[in-house]
Specification:
Elements: H1 2-29, H2 40-64
């Protein structure tokens, strides 16, 4: 179980970091920030991913005690 959590945590954080890097690269290329459009469904998806990452992290903290 703990190995599976570590695997999930690693994959989810990797996916989130890739998405953040992609968005930052896009923003850095834009001159006019008013034209930046990031779809709401993207935020929902990655917000859910972030919540799962936090949940796994909390499970790790609980197992340490």
């Amino acid at each position: 179980m703990e190995g599976e959590l570590a695997y999930q945590y690693t994959n989810l954080t990797s996916d989130l970091l890739k998405w953040i890097k992609t968005k930052l690269d896009f923003i850095n290329r834009e001159n006019n920030f008013e034209t930046i459009e990031i779809k709401n469904d993207e935020f929902v998806k990655y917000n859910q991913l972030l919540h799962r990452i936090r949940s796994i992290y909390t499970e790790f903290e609980v197992k340490e005690y």
